[in-house]
Amino acid sequence: MNVTASDDTSKYTCQATNEAIQRSILDSIILNIFYKPVFEISDSKVFEVKENESIVIDVTAKANPEKVTYRWTKDNDTVWEGPVLNITSAERSQTGTYSCEAKNDVGESVITIVLKVLYPAIIFKKGDESENMIVAEPGTIVKLECRGDGYPLPNNALKWKRDNFDMTGRTETLTPSFGRSILIVKNVTRDASGEFTCIADNGVGKSDTWKILLLVKHEPIIKDSETYKSVLSDRGKSAQLYCKAEGIPDVSFSWSFEGAIVSHGNDRMTNEVAKLDYLTWQGNLTIADVNVKDFGEYKCIARNEIGFATTEVNLLP
């Protein structure tokens, strides 16, 4: 008879009968089959564990003789001995295919398992602030790129978001390769200026975000405010006149009074510029030791390489 490992410890009984005296006798034997190790889990089974967590993989095999030696290998290097692979704090580098060789006096068997170490999606951020900003000409097509990593990292792990912006109608998303997402903003106009957020989320741990600033060039636009339109000052005191404008690229300010540019050659008048945010600028004209000839209407001229805009500010006694 042909026997296999499954026949080990099987019991066979032989019965002999004498009909003349109506007697029978029985005798039994138990098979002791020697066989090489047989694994009880399926080959190429996949195991998953999160980064920094532990996992125990037990591939103990049946064998006769029962004395079995085990050797685990990964990339042809021995990484463990024994039937149980015990990883106490999983690392990304431990992702891969492992082979376990089980051997006794009869022979050897090999099983392969796949270990996947899962870790949260992250974005490769650019350190220099200027690299996180794009200045574009109006009417052009702008491409914003986001690169990330994580395991797993499906195509939809990298997404783009911007509040109060028509992402569906004005943008298109491409995923040209693993870990890359390109947002195409079509026919950009002044109102497209703002922050776009790339979000990396693969369902493992916390999501990661990165903001990229899109600035579309346009001429200065005065931000009028009643607070700035009139300034009161006593004679002999200092007065400050303010003028605020939005514009890309940088906005500069000049002031005129009664048709002449002020502050040039005038020690009492100082013209300064402050950047309030990525597209808002403020011009400050300080007049020291105000006298009666200083009262009247001042014109603020906000200018950049695209164009200019003006507004009036009154200095009143």
UniProtKB/TrEMBL annotation:
Keywords: Disulfide bond, Immunoglobulin domain, Signal. One of its GO terms (molecular function) is axon guidance receptor activity. SMART domains: IG, IGc2. Residues 37-112, 120-203, 220-316 form the Ig-like domain. The keyword Disulfide bond applies. One of its GO terms (biological process) is synapse organization. GO terms for cellular component: axon; neuronal cell body; plasma membrane. SUPFAM superfamilies: Immunoglobulin. It holds the Pfam family Ig_3. This is Nephrin. It comes from Stegodyphus mimosarum (African social velvet spider). The lineage of its organism: Eukaryota, Metazoa, Ecdysozoa, Arthropoda, Chelicerata.
